[in-house]
Amino acid sequence: MTFSPADIAAIQTPAVLIDLDIAAANIGRFQRYADAHGLRVRPHVKTHKLPAIANLQIAAGAVGITCQKVSEAEAMVAASSAITDVLITYNIVGAEKLERLKALAEKVKLSVVADSAAVVNSLSDAFRNEVQPLTVLVECDTGANRCGVLTPEAAEALSALIHSMPGVVFGGLMTYPPAGGEAAVEAFMMAAKARIEALGIAVPVITSGGTPSMMHAADAPVTTEYRPGTYVYNDRSLVSRGACGWEDCALSVLTTVVSVPAANRAIVDAGSKILTSDLLGLTGYGHVRGRDDIVVDQLSEEHGRLISNGPIGLSVGDKLQIVPNHACVVTNMVDSVFVAGKGMASVESWPVVARGKIV
Fold first, then answer.
1. Beta-carbon count within 10 A of 8 CB
2. What pLDDT, in 10s, does the model give residues 333-350?
3. Torsions phi, psi of 42, nearest 5?
4. Residue 98 to residue 104: CA distance in whole angstroms
5. What angle in degrees, to the nearest 10, is found between the helix axes of 95-105 and 117-127?
């Protein structure tokens, strides 16, 4: 890590550390892959919620950003003039959110998604008197069993509805597939695209996402755009999948040992309020850097329990870095993160601009 022992000693815990050099390397690695395969990159900013990192992604070649909430998009756009193209991959429902969506659409090129006539109708009603129509993509379920229309036929029908409605314009197809779902994406999107084009409607964008199998994105060549999120930091879940190594993990939680009640057990000041309770199919709640023998086996709100099969060899006051299971959730737990990199004169504290918003 770029953080020196002196840096570590000066930081109060628990705290989130970001190695900017590793993050930049992660950004560049996927951008080169995407460029080589003719894919546009639209990273999901929910992982970092930091305008400065979005700027790095755009400078590397990203065409814009992906957000999950109106408030997230508002915060990012307000903080960075480099962000001019935003896709919100969530059904926007409710009069207040729609009003804010209209205000946002006056500032940037904006697209949203929909998976039902109810959502399309409300978007159309909100934008029917606007100068510029809102671009709407049809969200498709290609195996994740979350949001999305279930069949190419349903995608065709909803695309036709968008095409016919005032205030909105059909912008393409969107999916968030499960890891390794490239074959399903290709089959679904090819069928949906053919049906929609047979109606005389163009399908300008087919956007997919997901960090775990992003280096196989080109295995679904129908895809024109990809939306990785966690790739910028990586985390324990991605290491466990073989998607990266510990050396590719840019985010860690700095924590202090506050108790050593037994020879094989220690307590740290990082609990569920910073490491999160997400397991993602794993055992334990994070990886202690440099100590493969330690398991973070329990969390309460402010305590993390570390155990080892032998003497744990820790003392009160020791500081440890833990790579969390799920980096994206950690980002939203803190008001600011500590950032270090080779080009920086010192460690900086960056506010997490887009965190904590409820809408």
1. 18
2. 999 999 999 989 999 999
3. -130, 80
4. 10
5. 60
